[in-house]
From TrEMBL, chain A:
It comes from Aurantiacibacter luteus. This is Molybdopterin-binding protein. SUPFAM superfamilies: Oxidoreductase molybdopterin-binding domain. InterPro entries: OxRdtase_Mopterin-bd_dom, OxRdtase_Mopterin-bd_sf. Residues 87-221 form the Oxidoreductase molybdopterin-binding domain. It comes from the Bacteria.
From TrEMBL, chain B:
It holds the Pfam family Ni_hydr_CYTB. It comes from Aurantiacibacter luteus. Keywords: Cell membrane, Electron transport, Heme, Iron, Membrane, Metal-binding, Transmembrane, Transmembrane helix, Transport. It is a multi-pass membrane protein. It is found in: Cell membrane. Belongs to the HupC/HyaC/HydC family. This is HupC. GO terms for molecular function: electron transfer activity; heme binding; iron ion binding.
Amino acid sequence: MKRRNFIVAGAAAFLAGCSKIGKTDAFGAVVDTAESWNRGLHRALGFGRITMAPEFARSQISPFFRGNGTTEVAGEAYRASAAGGFADWRLAVDGLVAQPLSLSMDDIRALPQRTQITRHDCVEGWSAIGEWTGPQLSALLEMARPTDEARYIVFHCADTLGGAPYYESCDMDDAFHPQTIVAHLLNGEPLPERNGAPLRMRIERQLGYKHAKYLTRIEAVATLDGLYGGNGGYWEDRGYQWYAGI
Amino acid sequence: MSKPEKRHALSTRLWHWVNALSLGILFMSGLNISNAHPRLYWGHEGFAPGDEWLAVPRFPGWATIPDYYSLAGARDWHTVFAIVFAFSLLAFMIAAFLNRHMQRDIFARAREWRPSNIAVDIREHLKLNFDHGSGKYNILQKITYAGVILVLLPLMICTGIVMSPGGEAALPFLTDLFGGRQSARSIHFLAAWALFGFFLLHIALVLLSGPVGQLRAMITGGRAE
């Protein structure tokens, strides 16, 4: 075999090998380990302080905030509520909590509000800056009081993507993070439909797919097993990592 | 008492091959990730066609890991080998300072920076004469290796951290240093291709300077000259 052919054959075998290895359980276990390492490193590098996503000036806001994933919701109930300006929209807070809640939009607007100008980073690579307003998720959770067994917060949504319901989840560290808010305003206006009207999550230290839109229900759970695909999120059930801080 | 001096220390050889594997996987999975949004911007934000300074061509399957388009799969490879790459570089740097490889062989002396010395070195390289000068590496090698080890490789790590929302929250000064996340993404892309350029040059010079002996030295350690 000529040397050049040998190199080409070697490179092709390496590539085919990588693609095969990528589908094995053992590689999946390595990826899970790396995922928890990355998460642990990001937390550890804060050296005890609560790490914060950068916030920006009004002048840096993107002139148009792109919508991605679902940009129009099909469900009948959603369409009817949208036609009424979401006046009848309810957000449930339940699961492993001492006091389940059902909040109206007025209830949510009556809570102390946080406004933050942050950068939204899509897993694909693009970024957009917007000003988000809403109560901190911690305020809702302090009212509902998750029990000691609760380890994750799950976000249920009104939209489906490719026929499957969208959902997301985060750990208690992100759930109680000061920048984790239930946003109802973008740049001072009620959320446009493409950006998640009437309510969406902002989980600022993670990529865009964690920021569930069209929020209907917030559930405290002990495990993510048995929920939808069991991996803690719509995209996670399709191979993406649950910790999207990288 | 003293063992015969090796041309390459064990720590250097181990790192060389771990790093070669890591960079190969990071580069090829990175090309797959690039295909997810093949536009590059400067500043903090950017997403719209027309705002980019570079529309990146689509990289074919034979150049990417996995060998088909999969953002989730490519990110798995990228985030695993980012850890291998960063910690092996850190370990090598510590070892290379402790065994004085860095100070002795990579850092140039003041006299080596004289234009006459650099000119001689360029002339000898053009004549394909690589056995000149007194130290282990000549000035062009020192500039190249220092540029890769102390500038390009740390640059890949720092711009990678800026692109990670969780990493950026921990080390926010890095974002300011690079002028925003999309600038860091552009620099990450440019530095990756600079490393690819180094790879081609490195292979070419190994082939021109006795590849069998060079390879053997990087595996067994070889013998110091």
